[in-house]
Amino acid sequence: MKFTKVAATALASFLAVGALASCSPGEEEPGGSNSQAGATSSAFPTEWSEEITIDVFDGLANAMGEQPGWFAKIVKDKFNMKLNIIAPNVAGGGDTLYNTRVAAGDLGDLIVTDKGQKLDELVDGGLVMDVADYYPNMANAKNFDAAVQKLNSDFAGTYAFPTSVSSLAPTDPSEGIDPTFGPFVRWDLYKQIGYPEINTLEDLLPVLKQMQDAQPTAENGSKVYGMSLFKDWDGNMMNNAKQPVTFYGYDEMGFVIAKADGSDYQSIIDSDSEYVRTLKFFFEANQLGIMDPESTTQNYDTLFSKMQNGQVLFSFWPWQGQSAYNTIDNMEAGKGFMIAPMKDQKIFSYGAEPAGGKQVLAVGSKAEDPERIAAFIDWLYSPEGTYANNSQTMGAAGPQGLTWELNSEGKPELTEFGMKALVGGGADVPAEYGTGTYKDGASWLNVTLVLPIDTDPNTGEAFSYKTWETFQEATSNPLYEDWSAKMGGEATTMDYLKANDMLMVAPGASYTAPTDSSEIETLRNQVKAVIVSESWKMAFAANEGEFNALLAGLQETAKGLGYDKVLEVDMANAKEQNDLRVASAAGE
Amino acid sequence: MTVTPAVDPVRPEAVQTAKRKLKGAGEPKAKPKSRKSFAMFLSIVPFLILVFLFSYFPLYGWIYSLFDYRPARGLDGSEFVGLQWFELLVSSPTQLKQIGQVMANTLGMSFLGIATSILPLAFAVFLNEIKAKWFKNIVQTLTTLPNFISWVLVYMIAFSLFSTTGLVNTVLIDSGLITIPMKFLDSDQNVWLTMMAWSIWKGLGWGAIMYLAAIAGIDQSLYESAKVDGAGRFKTMWYITVPQLMPTYFVLLLLSIANLLNNGMEQYYVFQNAFNKEYIQVLDLYVYNVGITGNSLSMATAISMLKSIISVILLLTVNWLAKRVRGTALI
């Protein structure tokens, strides 16, 4: 009681200040939005005398500790600031780290978390700060003012900043030249076995088997497996088993998988659901001997290095398989991951979110220098920040001058160093830009503020180098040529999918599921623990009888624990999301 | 009846009488000798405070089970839900079955632990018979060391030995004995037994220390007279060493029964995975999984209260047993 009063008073005063502030200097400079390097607007100091280290609690980061390398140097030079990344993904144990830090009352100085329940609670609990005072100065963020306002519409103040924003229409895919998902196989081996036709998901099994037989051991002497899984990202379900579902246009909403066009909603544990179909697919892969037995114990990093070594032949995602294995050397030799389309696929694609994606940025309420953090967030929205911060797998080009520059025709082009660092297997950065390899020094934040396929007003081309004409010309290689020839001359995966009507774009609606009631949440957590562990058991069942028995057991246990109650909520959410998608698409 | 809490550690009855006396300390029966008894009272105050702090104050935490506790909002901002979590616990047969399985795991592994508690004793008795001192020392050091290795590292050792590409599987495959790697870690076969084996490996040497000390305290004249009577080495072990160790053994046994439900969670936490979860989740681990990993702190509080309830039931049972067998109750 007492607390809420204090909070309300604090809020009211913030509001007043915020209202005053927004009337004054911010409004007078709408033109200052796109000026590149000086984008850290006039009202923010350009120099910060005292060096600080901020704790960044980053729900997306895959590395923990102090940010090293060239990105660290940029942040240090610009903001005299070091980033100490706290990564729950690395710490493991789900929300353990989040909960303990929240309970202690200090999550971090800069917070990357989910909107919806988590953000609502952080705002309610006073763990994040209202930065309305600084927002008027955040010229780059103001370019996406509509998204910022929508995100904060439920709060009395400006607490959070959206991610994955862009100027694209909601019906446009938010991905670049590749979708997020797709059946990507080692094209060289696929070619070697004579490009067998793949009509549907299950046809991949014999294909992968043949590919594995064609190359049973990798160059490093290790055994090659058709498929390999990992468990790090398990949530409402076994994460890996959800991926093939997306090849048919479905995405998850709690325990529901919903088709992007709203035509089908499935309960994942139903015997005929696409999810169970995938489990069966894994099970059969295991029976065929093309499933890596280490799947049950390894993590993402182990799997990734296996892919780099050529020990795994299938990837659910281009940003995994290709970034691991498609180095220039490999591609020159015709080797690499490319999509091997299944005849009946309808690949799910995330439409551009008008009000941003699932994650948000916020400033912690105990941050010692909120102004500097606000300036930093604003910089992340600037073109310079976008080039530097966006993840490499999404095609971020890196700092201008180092990895890319404008050529004589004024078009962006990767420098020699850029080619080597980004697609050529890595390179050490020159001393003036920092230390270590380029890859190790890339941003650990792993959060996309401005979509890489959005256009940079300064160059007229997208932020992602992968879409640049100069890049596509420069990187033409036997792998792409062979793939393209097989795909009717299409240049990129996206082109091919669009041309063959194999893409299903879910219009971006920036939908956030409402907070679960405490009862639903508890039931959900109990049920999902069962679903995840039983799914793994099913995928690695000894025989079909055991598979079916496990499925029946899963259905019984899940329902006994209250699955149906949670499903009802998820079903309603999925339908609401679809309504929003329809509205969002029609709004264009 | 003097009010001197002199406790004889060997006789449990003495502890009991002392306890009973403590209870009576504040009552008027413990007559005027006021100054002295007040001083005596002062001397136990620190312990009373400790008991209060660590045994009673934490009970305040039970209040969380009546709320829908959200860490970000704090207890003040969290909704009061009454007995919702308790109702949820017994709301369906599946819930009950899950808790039943957890209890079975806890008690099962605890009893296995108690059943094997004779091993350190045997180990100590045999170790004592080794005459080469340097060898004895080496054995003792090597067996005691694992106790100081944390469970995380033990799991790393287990992983590098027994994972599908670990040492054991590699050797077996290379030697042609098997073709498919055996699943040691990610299987639900014999989870209790493997867990027991790991804890024996880790605790054997450490557990023997107490017995070795007790052996050192055995009167040598007993051995001498036995030898005079013609007893061989095994006879002296069986008729002198073992009986002399029995009091120590029973004290430790009693203590371990008191810790029946506290069989730790680190070991099970590091070894758990999707495949063995059903049989490895002991009460403490289950509470952790529900509360911290599953983000339902209030529900976890409700479950953890089970532990207290079961402890009380155990205590009353033992008390009843003691009454039947010995004629005197423990409490």
UniProtKB/TrEMBL annotation, chain A:
Domain of life: Bacteria
Keyword RNA-binding assigned: no
Coiled-coil region(s): none
Keywords: Signal
Position of the signal peptide: 1-21
PANTHER family (alphabetical): ARABINOSE-BINDING PROTEIN-RELATED, DIACETYLCHITOBIOSE BINDING PROTEIN DASA
Official protein name in the record: ABC transporter substrate-binding protein
